[in-house]
Amino acid sequence: MSTTQTPPVLAAELAEAWADIQRYHPELPDLAAPESLIGESSSACGHELSFERLLHEAVHGIAAARGIRDTSRAGRYHNRRFLAIAEEMGLDHPEEPHPSSGFSLVTLTPEAKRRYRPTIDQLQRALKAHTAATSADTARSFRGPAARHGSSGGGVRVKAVCDCGRNVRVVPSVLAQAPIVCGGCGKPFRIPDVVGAAAG
Known about the structure:
This protein is mainly alpha-helical. Helix content is 46%, strand content 8%. It has helices at 8-24, 34-38, 51-66, 80-88, 110-115, 117-138, 144-148, 172-177, 194-199, and strands spanning 71-72, 77-78, 91-92, 107-108, 158-161, 167-170. α1 (8-24) crosses α3 and α3 crosses α4. The protein starts with 7 loop residues before the first helix and ends with a helix.
């Protein structure tokens, strides 16, 4: 019987929403670890986890696929190259950049809201269910300072592997919340045991 507290359905919904974005933007790489987004309540973009946040992350994915440097200042400042791709993907921004985060605070255009409406609604339902499932245990459980301040666990990212040989870097506490499933083979990523890692 599973003892995970994060509903696995949320990772699946995130992956499905990402796949919907890929239908319109085929050059977007696969989302290797949807659970890594769940473990963080906010990011440099300043958004809570939502479809808008997911589309923001997809902009970074497209930039990476094109070899474009879309941020500076340790990823905090989102430059005009980021904004250009964001506009392609249905995100808009006020005229002037924010002094510290640049064009990070992008919002969905009306056209993008119409295009992705079913996906937005489906993901919103999954996020509400996730919040309801996890908020009940926060009153009874001590999660430590990292969780209270909205980080992904505050730990060091380690390599997790799947049976087909792909790997991702992940904070162990995030992986412990629920399985992260490989988009290539469909099997969960796991952190190799010390003996296996030493032998490899």
